[in-house]
Design goal:
Structural class: alpha/beta
Order of helices and strands: HHHEEHEHEHEEHEHEHEEEH
Shape: globular
Number of strands: 11
Largest sheet: 9 strands, mixed
Helix content: 40-55%
Number of helices: 10
Amino acid sequence: MDTRRLHFLLELSRHGSMRAVADVLGTTTSTVSQQIAVLAKETGAPLLEPDGRRVRLTPAGRRLAEHAVTILAAVEAARADLDPHAEPVGTVRVAGFATAVRRSVLPAAAVLAERHPRVQLRISEYEPYEAFAALLADDIDLALTYDFDLAPEVVDPMITASPLWTARWSLAVPEADAADHGSTVQVFEAFRDHGWIVNSRNSADEDVILRLASTARFAPRVTHRADSLELVEDLIATGPAPHVGLLPADRSTKPGVVLLPLAGPEVRLRAFACTRRGREAWPPLALVLRLLVR
């Protein structure tokens, strides 16, 4: 069985059409069809069946695609292990959210510059969904992503996620409305009539707000979407109507904004270092991962 053909099948299971697979792999639909047909002969089982004007994987095709994740990851690991003791050399492409870049990547970059100058970092600021897409497309080597413990992210099986750190978040409110309201649900209940600010490029904080508001038995009125935490503060402090939003609990806020603690339950952001399965053994990437998770 040619593992290259497994790659065609795996991409078909992920994208759902031969045209999409052809676009992703830079080939033609006829090539995709031919490779999967040969793979079916090699396995002795039908892998595709008609689905209207398209095709879909048979149960055997789906099972083989699941095996392909592990097989291809093992092939990647074997290639990386050919010279595991060599001095790391190469460029590691990193994409992640700004806080993780500042907190984790920049200190690692300083160590690399001093001790491993032949390993270079190429850094891009991406939101998690952008970083995951770039990782699966092999446009980057390392993705720094986040979710909240109350709304965990479902990670593609082709990706390995290593925990980095966690951080508590609070509810940012106008200073005039700040008071001790009790538990997290009681805090949310107290601000049910305020406008709510959520992230404009990622839904993680909005998912948490919706979940907690549902527990408090109301539907939050989302009025603003902002990626910048500074802009969230400005909207709370000077907005034309009362607004609230989630911010890191250890953040120093501007005048007019107060952070109310959330407890029972706490709201915690969780940061992860993510790689494609099997790639983490590549010496430059393994070195960077060690510096990030130590």
